[in-house]
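INTERNAL AUDIT FORM
Audit reference: QA-55
Scope: verify that the stored structure record matches its stored sequence.
Auditor: D.O.
Record contents follow.
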Amino acid sequence: MFTEIDQKKALLDAKRPLPKYTLKSLEEKLLLDWTYNSNAIEGNTLTMQETKVVLEGITVGGKTMREHLEVINHRDAISFVEEIVRKEDPLSQWQIKNLHRLVLKGIDDQYAGVYRDQQVLIAGATHTPPAHYLIQEEMDRLMQWYVTGAISLHPVARGAMLHAIFVGIHPFIDGNGRTSRLLLNLELMKEGYPPVIIRVENRLAYYEALDKAIAQNDFTDFITLVSQEVERSLNLYLSVLD
């Protein structure tokens, strides 16, 4: 499954260091695409162009304060991901809580960066997240898997499974989807991959593959979906550099 991805990743690595302004333009494009799509999946109604102007510090009329904050917060959370990558810090629950705190900052400060204290259901999903009193235990188990079982996996499979298992636990009251996609890209970026974009137009396939991974413990479809998006991002970088 990963042969073509590995070949394209090797081609990209061979071209490093990337030209300064080419890299800057790619990063700006992916920041916008990532922020727009991740928020749109969760119901944010800002268009791509409206998201762009909010990132530039301009308020869009007719849109809620929450929608504006979701854009700014997501940008700040991406900056935190980039900082973790630069420092080569190992993944921890402290980082996960801080990512989530940035996602919900000013939106729901009571629960920003705090594991949930009540039961929740996920609309449209066939699985039910664990009870709130099991969250710490489940997150401890996730981190134990991450440092033992996950270490031998291909980075794409590891990132996809980290995303899916995290969503299955659903440790926070709100903002789990955005946080999970940040974690996916954190894992990929640590290994030198460009960020991947789960596109809003692919939302149904994304939800179906994610639900299958969690409810049936079958990650095949979800890893395949993530792999396709990894290849798309690699193709973007290679096409610009060629």
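Auditor finding: record pair retrieved intact. The longest helix spans residues 65-87.
Action required: none
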